[in-house]
Design goal:
The complex is a heterodimer of chains A (366) and B (337).
Chain A: H1 18-26, H2 31-57, H3 76-81, H4 83-88, H5 96-114, H6 121-141, H7 157-183, H8 188-202, H9 206-220, H10 229-255, H11 258-266, H12 271-286, H13 288-301, H14 313-320, H15 330-358
Chain B: H1 2-20, H2 24-31, E1 34-39, E2 47-48, E3 54-55, H3 57-70, E4 76-81, H4 86-91, E5 97-98, H5 106-110, E6 114-116, E7 121-123, E8 125-130, E9 144-149, H6 154-164, E10 169-174, H7 177-185, E11 191-195, H8 196-205, E12 212-214, E13 222-224, E14 227-229, H9 233-251, H10 259-262, H11 268-273, H12 290-297, H13 301-308
Parallel strand pairs in B: 1-4, 1-5, 9-10, 9-11
Antiparallel strand pairs in B: 2-3, 6-14, 7-13, 8-11, 8-12
Classes of the chains: A mainly alpha (366), B alpha/beta (337).
Chain lengths: 366, 337
């Protein structure tokens, strides 16, 4: 009897596995691709080493005055000297702990809500939404419990950027959901009011809203009534963002098959029950990318408050360029601003992707 | 309808009542704080240092008023304003005083309902050129390329000047100070034009500041000064004489360092200046030592100038037009008697 044993498989040719194989498949698969690869490598070679040298090797890190910047590279001393101002604006130095405490508290509250399986989440969420803003405002503004008052015109830097964007988000999401429901409602008054609100606010640029709030509004109200400039900006941003959020949520409501509401009706659920239990959980899940997109946009749009003379992160960095002791370091400042914005936006985007994976129940088309 | 008109009358009465009680001076005294509008960052005029403290020749203008009225330069709330919102902030009463490198023009003085209390800096549009061009006067700039900043009156002044002198020119427009200076530095243009006070700041941005010179020609008048609301003469006087006190102090050689010594002087003009003789603060409704406080806490005009824009600052602007009248400039304050 002849036993047929197949010859054991030969290993793949060395040119198609490992690093060489990867290179061949991905970078040099055709003459045109090879050409592009080489061109790209050349461009990288021209750009990266000089930038790396400028930013790290030739850079100046220590010192506390312009004279310390003796090397050719970046002068990070400028950013270092002004760092606390970029973070807190003109907030008094002795009171920094208040801002840090408020943000740490927000961070831990949100962290608590994000970690799965912790008890009493409802209470924590309730406190975050209702109690925390009051507490944070009291901490920032002071005037109680022996804390000195810090008026809002002293708030600035990253702190102000975070305040503007978190307040905007806090308002935009719930109000946006209500407006979206209103726009799809069968009640004519609710529907037309929502449509008017959304189209009105979406039809004007944010910069106009801010400008109106700071330049026109004071002329209409009596002279002895003063509304804080920051408050005016906050209201403007929140109203504006609500309109955008409403449309994002509406897209989620529209994406939901009609059968879902019909099934809820058939089970005898009331309008609010069917919204709360059936429609919104599914709709909001579908539009997570859209919601996060709006938030990221808002975070960056807050830099527009520059035009009404509020010093957010970007405008406080820009105003520091005009210090005659430190003229000519705008590149370092802008790179720092870009880095901070990127860190926040990238973390938000990463979190949203994590959330999408966690809530993924097979509805998404990959 | 009747109700409607009643409400309108009530609103009107409320507004006129608040206008009648406008006395900014009393309001500032009651509040214990001066609210002063400044720029969001103009080198040498109003800027913040790394501690968040405001400096500059305009900031000194605010400080002088605070020293005169409240006797304390730290009792000021600085409101940073951009060029678009500055007038609204003043008209709406959000600020008491605007010292923000604002050019005194007829339109602003009349139509906008504001009063200019004086001139704390005589500026004008000038030129920064490469030394290697060998140009001595703006008249030799025919056919030159200019770097300018967008959205300023600079472009209009330039067009007027060249049309008047029948010369040709080209422009390269940039968005910010930094970019304008960088454009000039990299040779995109032969010449950079802007307000003279800005040119000195821009020059320090250059890789080799010594390679460029500011031409002596000035092609526009830009008198900058503190601004108050029209119709409040008491407050207008306070702001105006706070500036004059600084100028008079320089003229008489009274500085923040020697003002205490000068109090012993026999010169009646000096004795009036430091509030020992004459009307003192009476007709301004200010404390008797108002001008003493200005000199003690802020200094005279020369001190303020040199500290912020002059030889003791990185800008190193020469006094030029801003020298006193008896020194070849046009800064001239009426006598205090």
């Amino acid at each position: 009897m002849i036993i047929h044993t197949p010859h054991p498989d030969l290993p793949a040719p060395t040119t198609s596995v490992g690093a060489i194989g990867w290179l061949k498949r991905n970078l040099f698969s055709s003459p045109v691709n090879s050409l592009f690869t080489l061109a790209a490598l050349y461009v990288l070679y021209q750009l990266v080493p000089p930038m790396f040298n400028w930013a790290f090797i030739d850079a100046n890190w220590v010192g506390d005055s312009r004279e310390a910047c003796t090397n050719d590279g970046a002068c990070w001393v400028f950013v270092r000297v002004r760092f606390t101002q970029f973070m807190f604006g003109f907030y008094p130095e002795t009171e920094y702990w208040r801002a840090i405490l408020a943000f740490c508290m927000l961070g831990s509250l949100i962290g608590y809500l994000l970690i799965e399986g912790l008890p009493k989440k409802g209470w924590v969420a309730g406190f975050t939404i209702i109690g925390y803003p009051v507490f944070a405002y009291a901490l920032f503004y002071g005037g109680w419990f022996g804390l000195p008052v810090v008026e809002t015109y002293k708030w600035g830097g990253l702190m102000l950027t975070l305040i503007l964007s978190t307040v905007g988000m806090f308002f935009a999401l719930p109000c946006g959901i209500i407006l979206a429901l209103g726009r799809r409602s069968s009640m004519p008054v609710a529907r037309s009011l929502s449509v008017v609100y959304i189209e009105l606010w979406r039809g004007v640029p944010l910069i106009t809203v801010l400008f109106m709030s700071s330049v026109m509004l004071p002329l209409f109200i009596p002279e002895n009534i003063r509304i804080d400039k920051l408050l005016r900006a906050l209201i403007g941003i929140s109203m504006f963002q609500t309109a955008y959020m409403a449309e994002v949520v509406r897209s989620g409501l529209q994406a939901l098959p009609k059968g879902q509401t019909e099934a809820a009706d058939a089970m005898g659920l009331s309008y609010w029950q069917s919204m709360y239990l059936i429609v919104l959980p599914q709709a909001l899940k579908t539009v997570i990318p859209g919601i996060v997109n709006t938030f990221i946009e808002l975070f960056k749009d807050t830099s527009l408050v520059m035009i009404i003379g509020l010093f957010d992160l970007l405008s406080i960095i820009q105003s520091s360029f005009t210090d005659s002791k430190w003229l000519g370091f705008s590149v370092e400042g802008y790179i720092f601003a870009g880095l901070v914005y990127w860190i926040f936006c990238f973390s938000l985007s990463q979190y949203s992707q994590h959330l999408e994976r966690k809530l993924h129940t097979g509805h998404a088309r990959m | 309808m009747k109700k409607m008109s009643f409400i309108m009358v009530a609103v009107f009465l409320m507004i006129s009542a608040s206008l009648a009680a406008a006395g900014t001076l009393d309001e500032v005294k009651k509040r214990g704080q001066l609210v002063c509008g400044v720029s969001t960052g103009l080198p040498g005029f109003s800027i913040t240092d790394e501690k968040g403290v405001w400096h500059g020749i305009d900031v000194d203008g605010c400080k002088a008023v605070a020293a005169a009225v409240l006797g304390d330069v730290s009792k000021i709330k600085y409101v940073p304003l951009n060029s678009k919102e500055r007038f609204t902030a003043l008209q709406s009463g959000e600020i008491d005083l605007l010292v923000r490198g604002t050019t005194w023009t007829m339109h602003r003085d009349t139509a906008l309902g504001m009063n200019f209390a004086g001139v704390n800096y005589y500026d004008g549009q000038g030129f920064l050129v490469k030394k290697s061009l060998g140009v001595k006067s703006a008249k030799e700039l025919n056919g030159a390329t200019f770097c300018i900043q967008a959205g300023t009156t600079t472009e209009l002044n330039l067009a007027d000047y060249f049309a008047n002198n029948k010369m040709k020119y080209e422009t390269v427009v940039f968005d910010t100070h930094d970019q304008t200076a960088a454009g000039f530095d990299t040779g995109r243009c032969d010449c950079l034009t802007s307000d003279q006070s800005q040119l000195y700041g821009l020059r320090t941005h250059l890789k080799d500041p010594a390679s460029a010179v500011v031409l002596p020609d000035v092609i526009s008048k830009e008198p900058l000064g503190p601004v108050v609301r029209q119709g409040d003469d008491g407050w207008f006087n306070v702001v105006r004489w706070s500036l004059f006190a600084m100028l008079n102090a320089e003229e008489m050689g009274v500085t923040s360092a020697n003002v205490d010594e000068m109090k012993k002087s026999d010169n009646p003009a000096i004795r009036r200046l430091v509030g020992l003789e004459g009307d003192k603060g009476g007709s301004l409704n200010l404390p008797d030592d108002w001008s003493y406080q200005i000199i003690k806490q802020v200094g005279n005009y020369a001190e303020s100038f040199e500290r912020n824009v002059g030889q003791d600052s990185p800008l190193k602007i020469a006094r030029g037009l801003n020298a006193l009248w008896n020194n070849g400039g046009i800064q001239y304050a009426p006598p205090m008697r």
